[in-house]
């Protein structure tokens, strides 16, 4: 400690000229005490981690890159990716409708968002999986006219139900994120663009959308990470994604903790990768975004 | 009321409708009563008999491209460089060839003394520099009329001069301008016509020597006595 602390000027020192004055930073004794306490707790935790045989390192490493786990990881990634793409594709019209001056469009969008944000994803997934009870056949065609019909069970497989549930749920949140992003663009930008006579579609794509992205991207990254973790819920539909597969394995072998750790570590790695790539996207625009990724 | 090639300055206390009048001229504000014509063309509406039909957005945008507008808060596009800000509208609204527009944009930036800032983003420029880019942006459309909405009100006092210099230069070259401002000195020196507004009405108008030095209305006199200390 004494090595780190700066020299303290003694009162006996002669009064120094401007250049020689020594600045002594304020001391934070309680902060040091807190650091010491945290170190002790951390050491205890690590000690417990290393000495507890329950963590079962060999099993963990044996299954971490095992074929069925990696395949299941692929299913998780597909669900995440497809859910995000469909969710944002759905979110765009929802945001546009919600911002519309037409009361019918905005009310319909508002109601959709309200319902799908209120119903837990788990409940929704079970609901879609059981759609067949409600409508045993689905029809595509002219409203009240001719068309084709399909058995619901053929059309909505468990995987389809899972994807449908994730996408509909995601669309509600994506719609709100996109709407908030568009509203965050200063009114003056819209006025300047119209005052210059820039055509409507060009105003949107060239002027408004790039600025809205600044507000949309960080939230979209959070939503994507949430979706990645939410895919673990679809295990209730017996879809072979990461969490379901891990459960299958520990159901057979009884080694619950190391296999849960396999899933945990994979989720952590994927989450870190997603945040990392989102961060690179912000940096690319840092020349004109006043406070890039580092904003508090 | 404003003739081609002249500079009109609108004065008045805040809330007197100066900005609203200016914004109505390019239909950023809708008009309840009365007609606005620029170069003989009715703005924002089409008259048939005694009915006014509001024009479609596309037609209004086309009319606006002929009228420059300079905002109090500059409203430059923050994600585009100074050069791209100036070149955006001629390319997208007038569909001019890109190479020609960019060449002209560089000339315009040189005209407002910012040739070396072509590749800077707005947040890298001072307020005065941003406003000069905004003026170049308005000029790029070769408008028949430029509207200035308090162009120096958001600037630090030491930066006001550089923007007024550009305005004086434009006035001297015969650009038709309508300027809402509190810079009485600029009005006296550069205006052909001064309008004093209060509570949404034009109180009086005329050459600067008359309105500023010899106002006929008490309201004008009171206002000027507060501004000209």
TrEMBL record, chain A:
One of its GO terms (molecular function) is transmembrane transporter activity. SUPFAM superfamilies: MetI-like. Gene3D superfamilies: MetI-like. The chain crosses the membrane at residues 32-50, 70-96, 108-128, 148-169, 223-244, 256-275. It is a multi-pass membrane protein. GO terms for biological process: amino acid transport. Residues 73-278 form the ABC transmembrane type-1 domain. It holds the Pfam family BPD_transp_1. It is found in: Cell membrane. Keywords: Amino-acid transport, Cell membrane, Membrane, Transmembrane, Transmembrane helix, Transport. GO terms for cellular component: ATP-binding cassette (ABC) transporter complex. Belongs to the binding-protein-dependent transport system permease family. This is Amino acid ABC transporter permease. It comes from Actinoplanes aureus. The lineage of its organism: Bacteria, Bacillati, Actinomycetota, Actinomycetes, Micromonosporales.
């Amino acid at each position: 400690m004494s090595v780190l602390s700066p020299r303290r000027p003694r009162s006996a020192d002669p009064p120094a000229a401007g250049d020689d004055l020594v600045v002594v930073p304020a001391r934070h004794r309680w902060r040091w005490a807190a650091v010491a306490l945290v170190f002790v707790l951390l050491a205890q935790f690590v000690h417990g981690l290393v000495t507890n045989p329950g963590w079962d390192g060999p099993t963990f490493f044996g299954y971490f890159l095992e074929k069925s786990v990696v395949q299941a990881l692929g299913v998780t990634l597909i669900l995440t990716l497809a859910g995000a793409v469909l969710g944002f594709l759905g979110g765009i019209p929802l945001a546009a409708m919600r911002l519309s001056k037409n009361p019918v469009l905005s009310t319909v969008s508002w109601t959709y968002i309200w319902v799908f944000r209120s119903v837990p994803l788990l409940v929704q997934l079970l609901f879609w999986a059981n759609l067949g009870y409600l409508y045993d056949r689905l029809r595509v065609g002219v409203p009240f006219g001719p068309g084709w019909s399909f058995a619901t069970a053929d059309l909505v497989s468990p995987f389809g139900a899972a994807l449908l549930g994730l996408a509909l749920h995601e669309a509600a949140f994506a719609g709100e994120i996109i709407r908030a992003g568009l509203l965050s663009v200063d009114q003056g930008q819209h006025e300047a663009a119209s005052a210059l006579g820039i055509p409507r579609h060009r105003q949107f794509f060239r002027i408004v959308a790039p600025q809205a992205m600044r507000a949309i991207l960080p939230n979209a990254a959070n939503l994507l990470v949430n979706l990645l973790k939410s895919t673990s819920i679809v295990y209730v539909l017996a879809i072979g994604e990461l969490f379901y597969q891990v459960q299958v394995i520990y159901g057979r072998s009884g080694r619950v903790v190391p296999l849960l750790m396999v899933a945990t570590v994979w989720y952590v790695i994927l989450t870190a990768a997603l945040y990392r790539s989102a961060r690179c996207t912000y940096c690319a625009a840092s020349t004109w975004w006043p406070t890039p990724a580092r904003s508090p | 009321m404003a003739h081609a090639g002249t500079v009109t300055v609108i004065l008045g206390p805040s809330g007197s409708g100066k900005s609203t009048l200016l914004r109505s001229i390019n239909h950023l504000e809708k008009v309840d009563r009365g007609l606005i014509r620029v170069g003989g063309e009715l703005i924002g509406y089409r008259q048939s008999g005694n009915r006014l039909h509001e024009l479609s957005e596309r037609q209004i945008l086309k009319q606006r491209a002929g009228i420059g507008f300079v905002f109090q808060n500059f409203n430059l596009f923050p994600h585009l460089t100074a050069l791209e800000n100036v070149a955006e509208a001629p390319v997208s609204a007038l569909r001019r060839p890109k190479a020609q527009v960019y060449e002209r944009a560089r000339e315009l930036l040189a005209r407002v003394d910012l040739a070396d800032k072509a590749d800077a983003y707005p947040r890298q420029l001072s307020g005065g520099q941003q406003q000069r880019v905004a003026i170049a942006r308005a000029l790029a459309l070769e408008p028949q009329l430029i509207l200035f909405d308090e162009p120096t009100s958001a600037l630090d006092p030491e930066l006001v001069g550089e923007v007024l210099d550009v305005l004086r230069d434009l006035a001297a070259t015969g650009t038709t301008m309508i300027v809402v401002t509190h810079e009485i000195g600029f009005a006296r020196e550069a205006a052909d016509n001064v309008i004093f507004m209060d509570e949404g009405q034009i109180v009086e108008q005329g050459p600067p020597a008359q309105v500023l030095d010899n106002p006929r209305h008490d309201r004008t006199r009171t206002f000027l006595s507060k501004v000209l200390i």
